[in-house]
């Protein structure tokens, strides 16, 4: 990227490139957080399903693509530890998300960046309005 000696972007295109990459990083963080939250939800379901069971009962656990036979007593603590680890990662990702949002907000304020809707978005809205009206479908005359 073209930058001035002070570290400032040289032109609007460079600012737009930096802004676009920051927005992309923000979207990636959001996606990862959503993915991990789904995994935490699955872990919670497993924990609630096996917690009331007899600790000596057999259960199966997938470890690295291999199905392993264990007991509830062995599996339950491992699943709980995994869930806690995922929650810690989500917390760190949320911190990174807030930093990235602040960085984007600072860039928007500094360079007075405004987002405008593309023409494609406006056409899509108009198409939906037309499609929602009821009409009569007429086939070829027989």
From TrEMBL:
Family membership: Belongs to the prefoldin subunit beta family.
List compositional bias (Basic and acidic residues) regions by residue number. Answer: 118-131
Give me the ranges of the annotated region Disordered.
118-142
UniProt keyword Chaperone, yes or no: yes
Q: Which InterPro entries match?
A: PFD2, PFD_beta-like, Prefoldin
Origin species, per record, is Rhodamnia argentea
| Protein known as | LOW QUALITY PROTEIN: probable prefoldin subunit 2
GO CC terms on record?
A: prefoldin complex
Q: Name one GO biological process term.
A: response to cold
Keyword terms: Chaperone, Coiled coil
Give the coiled coil ranges.
Answer: 76-117
Query: Which terms in the Gene Ontology molecular function aspect does this entry carry?
Result: unfolded protein binding
Gene behind the chain? LOC115730215
């Amino acid at each position: 990227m073209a930058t001035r000696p002070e570290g400032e972007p040289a032109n609007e295109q460079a600012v737009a490139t930096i802004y676009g990459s920051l927005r992309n990083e923000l979207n990636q963080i959001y996606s990862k957080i959503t993915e991990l939250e789904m995994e935490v939800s699955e872990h919670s379901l497993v924990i609630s399903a096996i917690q009331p069971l007899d600790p000596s009962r057999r259960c199966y656990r997938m470890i690295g693509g291999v199905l392993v036979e264990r007991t509830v007593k062995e599996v339950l603590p491992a699943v709980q530890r995994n869930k806690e680890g995922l929650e810690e990662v989500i917390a760190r990702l949320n911190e990174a998300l807030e930093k990235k949002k602040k960085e984007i907000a600072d860039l928007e304020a500094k360079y007075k960046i405004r987002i405008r809707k593309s023409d494609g978005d406006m056409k899509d809205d108009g198409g939906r309005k037309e499609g929602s009206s009821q009409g009569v479908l007429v086939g070829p005359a027989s």
